Amino acid sequence: xxxxxxxxxxxxxxxxxxxxxxxxxxxxxxxxxxxxxxxxxxxxxxxxxxxxxxxxxxxxxxxxxxxxxxxxxxxxxxxxxxxxxxxxxxxxxxxxxxxxxxxxxxxxxxxxxxxxxxxxxxxxxxxxxxxxxxxxxxxxxxxxxxxxxxxxxxxxxxxxxxxxxxxxxxxxxxxxxxxxxxxxxxxxxxxxxxxxxxxxxxxxxxxxxxxxxxxxxxxxxxxxxxxxxxxxxxxxxxxxxxxxxxxxxxxxxxxxxxxxxxxxxxxxxxxxxxxxxxxxxxxxxxxxxxxxxxxxxxxxxxxxxxxxxxxx
Length: 312
Fold this sequence. Notes:
Elements: H1 4-10, E1 14-20, E2 32-38, H2 42-55, E3 59-62, E4 68-70, E5 75-81, E6 89-91, E7 101-106, H3 111-120, H4 136-145, E8 155-162, E9 165-170, E10 187-195, H5 200-217, E11 223-224, H6 237-243, E12 250-251, E13 254-256, E14 264-266, H7 272-290, E15 299-301
Parallel strand pairs: 2-5, 3-5, 4-15
Antiparallel strand pairs: 1-2, 6-7, 7-10, 8-9, 8-10, 11-14, 12-13, 13-14
């Protein structure tokens, strides 16, 4: 049984009751969470997670909410914000001139902040993420399961919370493409990258190039999430959705993006149910027309019994 005075005893940060989640997601949709917890530090966050685990109480970890759709009914459980608890980024030690820099990035740091930090210090690699939304924790959770990004090869350690204990995972294997870190539903606390030095002016140009590329390929300045479905090897989900002839389809105040068919954007007055119906349509029609089963990348929250999810 979860009691308010117990939560306040374990968590030094703020606690709110029946907090609407629309303000915490890029869709701008979603009903209230029973409890909304903002831990003040990493230690505070660990205490909160351990408490809810002991109680067997559903909880959800949220950062920028850029890859989640919360139901109109909300979430029956506790939502734990990572924004204040996991917001630190720093270089470990004092790197020698020309040597790799080990950059420790906590999971709640925005990808854009990580890119800016590294470019300013002439560390090469993260500039390819310019224009990418979400947080480093969400990016790592996605890319460790779906290798392919060159920057993933530069991720050498991950600090996680597993069964209530903080554990450091190290890359295994020798050859490029074989090194991996296995996550089993663990909470990512921080990531450590080994980044080579680069020329700052070249990195600034590279960041601008990737920013333009991302902005041209994805809808910007519109309410929505990241990609709805995972891309398949050699088969971008957007291309499959276009083949299914449902690009620009609408439901209520939500529509499949004209710029990229793997995105859903919303107008004022949209409901989470509008978006959910479009997701069902996309998945159903691609299976029917292309004989391909798409895998969701966006997290559905509150549509099924609550489970532990880590979001971007």
